[in-house]
Structure prediction request, 117 residues.
Amino acid sequence: QVELVESGGGLVQPGGSLRLSCKLSGSIFSIYTMGWYRQAPGQQRELVARITDGGSIEYGNPVKGRFTITRDNAKMTVYLQMNSLKPEDTAVYYCNADTEFSPDDYWGQGTQVTVSS
Prediction:
């Protein structure tokens, strides 16, 4: 059973930084494309950043130049470093794991990020 556990959310002032972590258990981490998505109240879930098993990276337009996604296969963890945070970054952030070897993808429980003064 694949499980994703996120951590690192919280309240931060505009211009501040946070780092989110997502640890996968129950499968082979290195075969997964790992992604971060977010959903604000009343809005659709959107891609924040994604990193493939080969290390290719994609960012959503709103976060380019401010957020950085990395992965540590040995620790089975993906990270999202968020800098220069804005109030519009406020959302629940979800971790996702997806692989070509399975028809299923997996989601974490979500972690709240609030950017406010």
The mean pLDDT is 96. Residues 17 and 67 are 9 Å apart (CA to CA). The two ends are 40 Å apart (CA to CA).
